[in-house]
């Protein structure tokens, strides 16, 4: 996908028109080929862009405005429907290009498997990479119903790739017993149910390190984000997730990229989920890009 051609569809509010002098590249990964419950997250990036028009450009939390950060909306990667492996290869190639240009990649999913090739690309550039992962689910399976390419596997894949001790999961409340046992035996950090307080304890230990942050919208309780493929009760509030994004922003970690995945607009006629996602992305841009 070329960056020298303007994206013709809707763009995220206040998107900069030029790739070359932008700090951040926002892009969509419209894939839901491997979901185990409800499809529809491939429509997430487009709807997040559409509802972003209702956002204020100023963040009360960070005292910054979107015009202070130049970010370019590159649109959605044109992924081949149903072809999981080719889609993952295309995502990795796309992010490789962003990193080669010295930009900050910020992705929108799509199912959570799309984060796997992004994190692989990040690790090639940052060999000391750490992952911060917000999710309702462990995503530590080796396969789902015999299929290793599944949205229930990306965190296991990256943990085995960069070392489990470099992966930190927060808000987890669902998974197999074997997944938790694997994490415990291999030194991976999992914070069950909670996010903000354990995150604050971990952040000082990651000071100075390159960190990639992946957020599955279902870390939120369904009362706050019903528009997702695999809802799971008992989650955190949107206020706590915002506070977590800000805690990362105010820490000494070096955030080098991030993504927000699993928004499935069809299951939320109120558009609460898409609107929440667009605000979270605004705070990620303003908080993590210095």
What does this structure look like?
The chain has 290 residues and is an alpha/beta fold. The protein has a single domain (24-288), classed as Arginase, Chain A (3-Layer(aba) Sandwich), CATH 3.40.800. Helices cover 31% and strands 18% of the residues. Helix 7 (238-249) links the parallel strand 9 and strand 10. Helix 1 (44-51) crosses helix 8 (272-288) and helix 2 packs parallel to helix 3 (115-125).
Rounded to the nearest angstrom, the distance between the terminal CA atoms is: 27 Å
What is the SS-derived class? Answer: alpha/beta
> How big a fraction of the residues is strand?
15-25%
Number of β-strand runs: 10
The CATH class label is: Alpha Beta
Question: What is the count of structural domains?
Answer: 1
CATH architecture: 3-Layer(aba) Sandwich
> How is the CATH topology named?
Arginase, Chain A
Biggest β-sheet strands, sense, barrel: 8 strands, parallel
Neighbour order of strands in the largest sheet: 4-1-5-10-9-6-7-8
Q: How many DSSP H or I helices?
A: 8
| CATH homologous superfamily descriptor | Ureohydrolase domain
Protein name: Agmatinase
Function: Catalyzes the formation of putrescine from agmatine.
Pathway: Amine and polyamine biosynthesis; putrescine biosynthesis via agmatine pathway; putrescine from agmatine: step 1/1
Cofactor: Mn(2+)
State the gist of this model:
It is built from eight helices and ten strands.
Which keywords apply here?
Arginase, Chain A; 10 strands; alpha/beta; 8 helices
Sequence-ordered SSE layout with sheet pairings:
Blueprint: E1 24-29, H1 44-51, E2 58-59, E3 64-65, E4 71-76, H2 84-100, E5 104-109, H3 115-125, E6 130-134, H4 154-162, E7 167-172, H5 177-186, E8 189-192, H6 196-202, E9 210-216, H7 238-249, E10 254-261, H8 272-288
Parallel strand pairs: 1-4, 1-5, 5-10, 6-7, 6-9, 7-8, 9-10
Antiparallel strand pairs: 2-3
Helix pairs in contact: 1-8, 2-3, 3-4, 7-8
């Amino acid at each position: 996908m070329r960056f020298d051609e303007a994206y013709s569809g809707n763009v995220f509010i206040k998107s900069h028109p030029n790739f070359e002098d932008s700090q951040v590249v926002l892009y969509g990964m419209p894939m839901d080929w491997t979901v185990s419950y409800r499809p529809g997250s491939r429509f997430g990036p487009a709807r997040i862009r559409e509802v972003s028009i209702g956002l204020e450009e100023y963040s009360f939390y960070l005292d910054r405005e979107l015009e202070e950060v130049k970010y370019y909306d590159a649109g959605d990667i044109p992924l081949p429907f149903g072809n999981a492996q080719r889609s993952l290869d295309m995502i990795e190639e796309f992010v490789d290009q962003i990193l080669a240009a010295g930009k900050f990649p910020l992705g929108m999913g799509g199912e959570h498997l799309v984060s796997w090739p992004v994190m692989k690309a990040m690790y090639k550039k940052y060999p000391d990479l750490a992952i911060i992962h917000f999710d309702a689910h462990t995503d530590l399976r080796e396969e789902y119903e015999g299929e290793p390419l599944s949205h229930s596997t990306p965190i296991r894949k990256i943990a085995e790739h960069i070392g489990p001790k470099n992966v930190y999961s927060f808000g987890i409340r669902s998974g197999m017993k074997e997944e938790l046992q694997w994490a415990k035996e291999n030194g991976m950090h999992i914070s069950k149910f909670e996010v903000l307080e354990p995150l604050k304890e971990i952040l000082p230990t990651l000071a100075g390190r390159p960190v990639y942050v992946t957020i599955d919208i279902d870390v939120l309780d369904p009362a706050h984000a019903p528009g997702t493929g695999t809802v799971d009760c008992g989650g955190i509030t949107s206020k706590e997730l915002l506070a977590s994004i800000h805690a990362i922003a105010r820490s000494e970690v070096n955030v080098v990229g991030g993504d927000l995945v699993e928004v499935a607009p069809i299951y939320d006629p109120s558009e609460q989920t898409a609107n929440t996602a667009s605000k979270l992305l605004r705070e990620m841009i303003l908080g993590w890009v210095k």
